[in-house]
Amino acid sequence: MTTTQGVDTTTTRAAGPTIVTADREAEPADGAPRGGWLDAEQQSHWRAFRAGTALLLATLDHELVVRTGLSSHEYEVLVRLSEAPGRTMRMSELADGVAHSRSRLTHTIRRMEERGLVARAQCESDARGVNCTMTPEGWRVLVEGAPIHVQSVRDHLVDVLTPAQFAALGDAMSVVRAHLTTGACAAVALGCDGAADASGDAAGDASGS
Q1: What is the pLDDT of residues 83-123, one digit of tens each?
Q2: Domains with residue ranges and CATH for the chain
Q3: 105-139: burial string, b at 16+ Cβ within 10 Å, e else
Q4: What pTM was computed for the model?
């Protein structure tokens, strides 16, 4: 018997009301998923992905905070700014680049400003826009932290997999990212991110990250 999320997939249920999610209808709430339940192999892969991703990101974030004082979100902001002309980006472009909601990015940038890592200023070419620029202090922190973070990525992911496995992982996640950043899926994803902003940023403020 194969189960998913504690659901007995061998049980047959009567059709129930449909649920509309994103831009399409889901199967009846008390029925089987549209594509069917996960088989044993699919369920094994899914659980391995969930557990591995959670452990990897938690480990990388912990090592980054302990060794550099930067959260993973702050580090990614500095990386993106370092790659931009003049180490400056529009806030809207930065939000898209780091896959954050704009509200979440605003909170992150505010904390970084307080630490002197970045500075915001009105966009000269568009009064409605706001630019974010990496400061010399932000550059110093990134230069010191980058080798530490990259080594962690190598230790816990890149060098653990074969080149073929790592390439396959990147290809697969590119497909997933494209799916989640287009159409109705993008709106749903941003909504979930926005809902998590308050709790996530409150925790960040409390920890001083």
Answers
A1: 999 999 999 889 887 866 778 888 999 999 999 999 999 88
A2: 52-146+177-195 (1.10.10.10)
A3: bbbbbebbeebebbbeeeeeeeeeebbbebbeebe
A4: 0.69
